[in-house]
């Protein structure tokens, strides 16, 4: 959403930036990366939400707060609540909008895996938000078709706002590092970290990759918590070829990935970002709601160990990839801002 907020601010239009506070410890860095000036209104200001029990208590509480203190979070009821993606924050914002009688616009609408367990619970979250939305900003024709039958206006943004995000990140990176013999790891999805069996399997796969080259494992707080819970954190920490790093800012992560030989991730946004750059990616998932990069530089791994081994070997042998990818000229954030401005002027 950051490129949309940035362009909206540059046009001098008023905005109320409501943050659920789920991942507050990285927000300040993100604001700096994207030059966002708005002062956020936090619905929740406690510790990071990184467990199922905390999430179950947190979600209804923040919805209640947004509705009960609506004047604080939404000064103009004639405005539009704009939500993004498939998180619980997306669902919370959409529900609050409906309860307050406001229009809800969903950015990144129409993405589907057609498998309710992969990704879980994101696939269910998306379906709920589709029903709650008045305006659906769909990143392409495939997403547009997936929104047929829902009672909302569909708008094709051509691609996702990640195009704008990557452009900004590369502009912010003074120097992209040369290709080095390291891989980047980012694992955080519910279905991967809350299954002890699956998490052990992933750790074994990463240990194999570490036997071939150096790894930089960017740890989400929830991932670190589950690794420690399953007594896997020390096992990774003691591996001389695995460097554990805390979750970092957007620009820093893109810069790190641009210098890598490969990336292993379970993130849908990472899939889209890295599809634009051509970096080899092993997607640690059974199914994906996105089409970008599949059968090109993105391998939907389905946890297949043999496919993973082949991916590592091929990635380490690859040469000649450019550090400065040619990105599409389209700006989905501009399309979204123009449409929102038109809605608000009528």
Name its key features.
Rossmann fold, alpha/beta, 346 residues, single chain
Walk me through this protein's architecture.
This is UDP-N-acetylglucosamine 2-epimerase domain-containing protein. It holds the Pfam family Epimerase_2. Keywords: Isomerase. The protein is α/β, with parallel strands linked by helices. The chain has 2 domains: 2-159 and 330-345, Glycogen Phosphorylase B (Rossmann fold, 3-Layer(aba) Sandwich), CATH 3.40.50; 173-317, Glycogen Phosphorylase B (Rossmann fold, 3-Layer(aba) Sandwich), CATH 3.40.50. 45% of the residues lie in helices and 14% in strands. The chain is built from 16 helices and 12 strands. The protein has helices spanning 2-10, 27-34, 52-68, 70-73, 88-99, 122-132, 141-146, 162-172, 190-193, 196-210, 221-229, 233-237, 250-258, 268-277, 305-317, 332-345, and strands at residues 18-19, 41-42, 80-84, 103-107, 135-138, 153-156, 182-186, 214-219, 242-246, 262-265, 281-283, 298-300. The strands form 3 sheets. The chain has a 6-stranded parallel β-sheet, sandwiched between helices. It has a 4-stranded parallel β-sheet with strand order 3-4-5-6, sandwiched between helices. The chain has a two-stranded parallel ribbon with strand order 1-2. Helix 14 (268-277) links the parallel strand 10 (262-265) and strand 11. The longest helix is centred in the N-terminal third of the chain and has 17 residues, at 52-68. The radius of gyration is 20 Å and the shape is globular. The two termini are 24 Å apart. The mean pLDDT is 92.
């Amino acid at each position: 959403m950051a490129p949309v907020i940035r362009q909206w601010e540059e046009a001098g239009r008023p905005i109320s930036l409501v943050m659920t506070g789920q991942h507050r410890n990285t927000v300040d860095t993100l604001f700096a990366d994207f030059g966002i000036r708005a002062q956020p209104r936090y619905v929740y200001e406690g510790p990071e939400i990184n467990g199922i029990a905390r999430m179950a208590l947190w979600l209804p509480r923040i919805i209640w707060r947004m509705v009960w203190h609506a004047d604080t979070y939404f000064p103009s009821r004639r405005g539009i609540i704009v939500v993004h993606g498939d998180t619980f924050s997306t669902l919370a914002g959409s529900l609050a909008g409906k309860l307050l009688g406001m229009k809800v616009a969903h950015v990144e609408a129409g993405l589907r895996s057609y498998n309710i367990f992969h990704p879980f619970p994101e696939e269910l979250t998306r379906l709920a938000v589709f029903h709650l939305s008045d305006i659906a900003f769909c990143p392409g024709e495939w997403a547009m078709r997936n929104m047929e039958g829902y009672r909302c206006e569909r708008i094709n943004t051509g691609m996702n706002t990640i195009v704008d995000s990557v452009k900004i990140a590369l502009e912010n990176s003074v120097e992209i590092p040369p290709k080095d013999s390291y891989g980047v790891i980012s694992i955080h999805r519910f279905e991967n970290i809350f299954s002890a069996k699956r998490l052990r399997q992933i750790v074994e796969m990463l240990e194999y990759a570490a036997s071939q080259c150096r790894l930089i494992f960017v740890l989400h707080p929830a991932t670190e918590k589950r690794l420690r819970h399953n007594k896997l954190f020390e096992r990774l920490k003691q591996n001389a070829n695995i460097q554990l790093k805390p979750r970092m800012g957007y620009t820093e992560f893109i810069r790190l990935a641009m210098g890598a030989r490969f990336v292993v991730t379970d993130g849908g946004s990472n899939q889209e970002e890295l599809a634009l750059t051509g970096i080899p990616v092993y997607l640690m998932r059974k199914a994906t709601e996105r089409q970008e990069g599949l059968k090109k530089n993105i391998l939907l791994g389905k946890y297949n160990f043999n496919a993973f081994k082949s991916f590592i070997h091929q990635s380490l042998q690859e040469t000649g990839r450019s550090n400065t990818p040619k990105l599409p000229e389209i700006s989905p954030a501009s399309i979204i801002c123009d449409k929102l401005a038109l809605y608000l002027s009528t």
